[in-house]
Structure formats: structure tokens, C-alpha cells
Amino acid sequence: MSYRIDVDREVCISSGKCVADAPDLFRFDDEEIATPVTGAPEPGDERALDLARACPSGALTVHDADTGEEIDIF
User: Fold this and answer.
1) Does the record's keyword annotation contain DNA-binding (predicted)?
2) 1 FRET partner, CA 20 to 30 A, in 21, 44, 52, 67?
């Protein structure tokens, strides 16, 4: 299975945790909200789960890349 991570812009508090932990996957946009890096490779499953669990606001959600189904991270 392959996972993708989505950012809920309404929930993101711009802590920078995801940007610091995975600069290859996330950056800040002009509004200082985390956003996925265009063209970045999909993270490994464990890395995706770890990044989402570490987000202090819960703005990162993990989805099955094939079905779009949200994955329970806890």
C-alpha cells in the first residue's frame, strides 16, 4: 500500500514541525501554511504515519494513495 499526506489548511497552526522533519515533502506557502512540495515522492508508509502523528494541530491526514480512504493514524 502507498500513502499520501494531505494538509488541512484550516487546522494548520504553522508550527513548522512537518517542514523541519520533512523538508523534502513540505514547505510553507505565502500565507505561512504548510503545503506539500509539488512533485515530491510519496513518503514511505511509516514515515507518513509518523509525520501525521507528530503534527501538533492534527492538520496532517494520511490517505491510501490508490483509494483515497483516510487511514487511522492512532
Assistant:
1) no
2) 21
23-56 pLDDT tens trace: 999 999 999 999 999 999 889 999 999 999 999 9
What DSSP character marks residue 31? T
Helix (H, G, I), strand (E, B) or coil at 49: helix
Element housing 34 (H / E)? strand 34-36
Work out the burial of residue 61: count CB atoms within 10 Å of its CB; fewer than 13 is exposed, 13-18 middle, 19 or more buried.
middle
Side chain identity, residue 70 = E
User: Which pTM was predicted?
Assistant: 0.90
Element (H, E) at 68: none
d(CA 27, CA 1): 25
